[in-house]
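Subject: design request, 634 residues
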């Protein structure tokens, strides 16, 4: 059995250096539950990264077979000698729990309500297993065995992610003689009390890391479920706890088992999402430092791994180093005949496209968005829309028009399938452009594409918060461009409007004639003024955007504007007081104002509001950060 575990672990090592074919061959060598789980994980990652949803059935099949096999092995193990101090067959329960969680994620990947319910059902089945495993492996709780931020006496951060400061073990704990991952970061990860005789050290690691990882991921999934699905969670009698989740994942990440790599990857994805989408963090510097340490550790082990290169480039982008990020991504995308994990390239190409957009390299950004259509099947119409916007900014009208003209047929080809929120949004935008063209009299020398005055890629970028980490110079360039649009805004900006016309400016009449366009311009100006730390002007533009959008019943702009006003309150307070300042009253006042803004944003978020799910996720992240800030003020 230990040989199967070792062999399957080597398969994951191949996967993490982009050799998907090699990993799949390794997992196909045996029908052991370990190998079947590996095959299921491969199919899941292909489906998740490449949006190849037809692979979800294969993932579910492999994971189901792994569960069945592990169940049989567990029953047989009860009559055999234990391979760990935790009792006979516990390792098979860990594997069954792994299969259950992965099955749940497989069902949730489509982001449908029914998919979430199926995910809940799978996780409900896993709940009893996790509870039993947790009590068996951590009978006194993780806090008594592992030095983690949840138990540190003086944490530098009680926030949405873990503190890597070390804490001394109690006298009853033996110091770990193994320098684990967190040891290199400054966290002294404590091993569980050593048994009198460790029958199989590798199996010990598998059980400890697997239990911590599964328990952490289980809680994380529930903590981050959409609000509308959380109401169903109560029916099952449990809720996810974010702090518990991150604490458990930290314990798993400190181990040597393959679960440690998946725990680090989970934490990287979570940290990256918070830094990118929440709009404000309790301790951005700490979060970035921690994220960097995890990425560097994985790159040390797997230097050519696409997953880690993508995260390293994201860190560069988050720190405003867009040129360096783009260069790293381009190197990472260079052809390697040994690399077969092409689905992971989607992440690199996607981030490259947005980095090039921020650098105003519009032709290159457009080419990157177009290439994404060849790399995955997620939404060709969305990639067309983004690429068209970039080509328009580059002055390539004909190519942009061809891409936009193809969108209706692309949307029609998906009729009968679930409509993606982004595609629904794009359909409404095309209708708006055509409405504007009609109001202009349908001039024979013009087409609806000639009515587009603001790059659609920048508009969609609002939902992904792509502007927030731009440098001051980059944001000022966008301010100059959008201030030059006519009619001019009545709000006075410290930045002068550009005298140079872009390809999106019109030769005659006003660039913007619809209230929806005026609201969008004010929203974008509010966002980038905030990035440049022009707090007063940012607030004025965002207030204007919210008011104009409300009058035009343009609800998505209302939601985003009030959310941006909420984050602006916190960012301005951080700038005024300093991130480490713990003056209770000023912060509590800012948090109270932020809560009101969030409630206002949610009041405009309905079933018919575009991109409501994505914005509610961002609001959820921001609220977690606000809760973390409150803890530091106690």
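Subject: RE: design request

Done. Sequence follows.
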């Amino acid at each position: 059995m230990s040989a199967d575990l070792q062999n399957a672990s080597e398969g994951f090592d191949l996967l993490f250096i982009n050799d998907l074919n090699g990993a799949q061959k390794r997992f196909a060598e045996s029908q052991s539950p370990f190998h079947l789980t590996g095959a299921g994980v491969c199919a899941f990652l292909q489906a998740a990264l490449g949006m190849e949803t037809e692979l979800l059935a294969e993932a579910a099949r492999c994971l189901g077979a792994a569960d069945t096999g592990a169940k049989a092995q567990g029953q047989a193990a009860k009559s055999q000698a234990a391979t760990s101090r935790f009792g006979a067959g516990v390792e098979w329960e860990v594997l069954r729990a792994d299969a259950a969680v992965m099955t749940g994620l497989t069902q949730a990947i489509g982001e449908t309500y029914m998919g979430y319910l199926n995910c809940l059902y799978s996780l409900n089945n896993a709940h009893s297993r996790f509870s039993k495993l947790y009590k068996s492996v951590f009978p006194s709780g993780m806090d008594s065995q592992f030095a983690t931020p949840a138990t540190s006496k003086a944490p530098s951060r009680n926030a949405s992610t873990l503190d890597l400061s070390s804490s001394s073990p109690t006298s009853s704990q033996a110091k770990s003689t193994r320098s684990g991952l967190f040891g290199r970061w400054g966290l002294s990860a404590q091993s569980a009390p050593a048994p009198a005789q460790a029958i199989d050290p590798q199996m010990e690691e598998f059980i400890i890391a697997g239990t911590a990882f599964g328990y952490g991921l289980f809680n994380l999934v529930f903590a981050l479920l959409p609000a509308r699905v959380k109401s169903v969670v109560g029916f099952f009698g449990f809720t996810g706890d974010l702090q518990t989740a991150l604490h458990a994942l930290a314990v798993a990440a400190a181990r040597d088992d393959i679960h440690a790599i998946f725990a680090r990857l989970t934490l990287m994805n979570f940290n990256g999402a918070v830094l990118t989408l929440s709009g404000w963090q309790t301790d951005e510097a700490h979060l970035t430092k921690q994220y960097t340490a995890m990425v560097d550790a994985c790159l040390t082990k797997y230097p050519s791994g696409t997953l880690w290169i993508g995260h390293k480039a994201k860190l560069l982008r988050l720190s405003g180093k867009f040129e360096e990020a783009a260069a790293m991504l381009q190197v990472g995308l260079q052809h390697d005949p040994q690399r077969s994990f092409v689905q992971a390239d989607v992440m690199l190409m996607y981030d490259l496209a947005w980095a090039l957009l921020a650098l105003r390299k519009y032709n290159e950004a457009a080419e990157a968005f177009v290439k994404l259509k060849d790399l995955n099947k997620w939404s060709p119409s969305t990639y067309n829309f983004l690429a068209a916007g970039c080509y328009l900014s580059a002055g390539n009208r004909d190519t942009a028009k061809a891409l936009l003209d193809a969108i209706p047929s692309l949307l029609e080809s998906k009729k009968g399938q679930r409509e993606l929120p982004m595609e629904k949004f794009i359909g409404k935008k095309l209708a708006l452009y055509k409405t504007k063209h009609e109001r202009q009299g349908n001039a024979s020398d013009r087409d609806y594409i000639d009515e587009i005055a603001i790059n659609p890629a920048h508009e969609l970028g609002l939902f992904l918060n792509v502007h927030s980490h731009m440098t001051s110079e980059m944001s000022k360039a966008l301010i100059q461009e959008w201030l030059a649009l006519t009619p001019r805004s009545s709000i006075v900006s410290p930045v002068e409007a550009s005298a140079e016309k872009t390809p999106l400016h019109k030769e005659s009449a006003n660039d913007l004639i619809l209230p929806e366009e005026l609201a969008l311009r004010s929203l974008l100006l509010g966002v980038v003024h905030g990035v440049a730390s022009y707090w007063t002007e940012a607030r004025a533009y965002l207030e204007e955007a919210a008011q104009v959008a409300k009058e035009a019943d343009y609800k998505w702009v209302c939601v985003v504007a009030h959310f941006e006003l909420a984050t602006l309150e916190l960012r301005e307070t951080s700038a005024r007081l300093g991130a480490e300042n713990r003056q209770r009253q000023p912060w509590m006042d800012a948090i109270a104002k932020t809560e009101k803004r969030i409630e206002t944003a949610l009041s405009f978020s309905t079933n018919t509001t575009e991109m409501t799910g994505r914005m509610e996720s961002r609001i959820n992240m921001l609220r977690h950060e606000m809760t973390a800030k409150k803890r530091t003020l106690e």
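Residues 360-452 form one domain.
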